[in-house]
Amino acid sequence: MELQFAVAKIGKYASRESGDTLEMIERPHGGLSMVLVDGQRSGRSAKAISNVVARKAVQLLSEGVRDGAVARAAHDYLYTYRKGKVSATLNILSVDTRSRTLVISRNNPAPVIVHTAERGCFLLDEPSSVVGVNRNVKPSISEIPLEPDTLIVVYTDGLQHAGSISGSDVFDPQSLVSSMLEEGIRDPQLIVDNLLDSAVEMDSGRPGDDISVMAISVSSKRGDESRRLTGRLPL
Amino acid sequence: MELQFAVAKIGKYASRESGDTLEMIERPHGGLSMVLVDGQRSGRSAKAISNVVARKAVQLLSEGVRDGAVARAAHDYLYTYRKGKVSATLNILSVDTRSRTLVISRNNPAPVIVHTAERGCFLLDEPSSVVGVNRNVKPSISEIPLEPDTLIVVYTDGLQHAGSISGSDVFDPQSLVSSMLEEGIRDPQLIVDNLLDSAVEMDSGRPGDDISVMAISVSSKRGDESRRLTGRLPL
């Protein structure tokens, strides 16, 4: 089998930087974890918050701490550090090669889109609390077997709310993902690009919020034994 | 301007995993850092070493510690942890958007290939000590202005030594990079893929050592404001 992943991120229009932080880290027992954090508000102050939460999470993940404990610790840390006054959403998406599962941890009202060969396309949308405010916040955790024809799409609320400021129709990420799956599209890069481009278009090219999308897909094809990573950023 | 980067990694033939670790982290003051560590020997034991060194380095980088201090700390940490008996090579390649430079930190006898508009193609190859053994080891640090038409290629010694076991000609990464530059190739993904594929070919498809290659290129083109990341790994 082969795992492919892709991330695309864009900041709110006219904001100097995105308030979302995405970090990726190897898991010491095998596999990798991706951490996506959306700090409250936007720009510099949001970035400072999301950076602190993501840093704490990747540090613990790199030490082999299990995902549920990482999300709890990231909450406790932000709660203590900012006295319960500042919130962030936190998603951890892990490929755990030891348990042969994909582990999805949500502290984010925005749902996660999942497609599996067995169940088709469905949402993980049970109520979920952000981190940093309230006490004893827990993540909502789902485990999906690491099997071919699996796709997971995670995003920050900027994607969902695209178009809501300009008053046009609200963007529906799930229906767009479903239609791409029906067309046989499984490449995570195409999927995140389409989602991001469509959202930015609904905001008339000027995103009303920071938007980040990440996707992981598992396929039965088997290329060579190499691991590869590529990326770009504007300077 | 736009920055593009690419990494390709493959493990020694018949080894369960690569002993090299590559991690990437956002710099809190802007930009990103890539950390590449090659642990002594190969397989599991090498992976445990490279993981510890890379983890320490990304943790400090994420807290805003400067690259030279990070390399020193990673050395001291491994030296203390393994009592000076275990070595690793360490390269840190940073895009520092605050100082507008690319910072290259080497604790690795293998050279780094650099191309700039002003100086053309040259090697960073002054003598450099690995981390973990000997006392008071320092990194060799170079700063290159963040300007268009700049390319940096960093690799572990597995790339250099490709072909040396089978007794065929020794692989020359610099001449391959030079000829790609002459052909106008600037895409870091093409560059690392060509380097890795050529090295594996010289080892008759069975790499005699872990091989990792990373490249960063700065170009004057300017796409949209998004940041993108993609990758694949065999499962």
Describe the structure.
Two copies of one chain form a homodimer. Chain A is of the alpha+beta class. Helix content of chain A is 27%, strand content 34%. Chain A has helices spanning 43-62, 67-81, 157-160, 173-182, 188-202; strands spanning 2-10, 20-26, 31-39, 88-96, 101-107, 112-116, 120-124, 140-145, 150-155, 211-219, 227-234. A five-stranded antiparallel sheet of chain A has the order 1-10-9-6-7. In chain A, strands 2-3-4-5-8 form a five-stranded antiparallel sheet, with helices on one face. In chain A, strand 2 (20-26) and strand 3 (31-39) form a beta hairpin. In chain A, helix 1 crosses helix 2. The first copy, chain A, is globular. The model of chain A has no long low-confidence stretch (mean pLDDT 93). The interface between A and B is large, with 52 and 52 residues.
Condensed summary:
Two copies of one chain form a homodimer. The first copy, chain A, has 235 residues and is α+β, with helices and mostly antiparallel strands.
Oligomerization = homodimer
Average pLDDT confidence of chain A is: 93
- Give, in spatial order, the strands making up the sheet with the most strands of chain A: 1-10-9-6-7
Secondary-structure content class of chain A: alpha+beta
- Rg of chain A is 17 Å
- Relative strand content of chain A: 25-35%
Distance between the termini of chain A: 36 Å
Order of helices and strands of chain A: EEEHHEEEEEEHHHEE
- Binned, the helix content of chain A reads 25-40%
Count of DSSP strands of chain A: 11
Q: Largest beta sheet of chain A, briefly?
A: 5 strands, antiparallel
Low-confidence stretches of chain A: none
Task: Indicate the overall shape of chain A.
Answer: globular
The greatest interface between two protein chains, and residues involved on each side, is: A-B, 52 and 52 residues
List the total number of helices of chain A.
5
